[in-house]
Amino acid sequence: MVLPLSLARRLRSARTWIALGVLAPIGMLAVSGTMLLDMRQDAYAKAEQTSQNLLQVLERDIDRNIELFDLSLRAVAKNLRAPGVAEVPASLRQLILFDRAATAQDMGVMFVLDERGDIAVDEGAVPPRQGNYADREYFRIHKTRTDIGLYIGQPIVSRLTGERMLPFSRRIDRPDGSFGGVAFGSLKLSYFSHLFEPVGLGRDGAINLDLRNGTRIMRHPYVEADIGMNVAGRSTFQRFVSARSGTMVGTSPRDGIERHYAFTQIGAWPLVLNVALSTREIEAEWRTKAFGIGGIVLVLCGLTMFLSLLYGRDLRRREAMQAELARLSSTDALTGLPNRRRFEQEFERAWEGARLAGKPLSLLIVDVDHFKRVNDRYGHPVGDAVLRELARCLSASVSRPRDLVCRIGGEEFVVLLPDTDQPGAVRVAGEIHDGVRTLGIAAAGIRPGAVTVSIGLAAGPLTAGTKPDDLYRNADAALYEAKTGGRNQTQCAAEGATRDRVLRLVGV
Question: Average pLDDT, whole number, for the chain?
Answer without folding.
Answer: 85
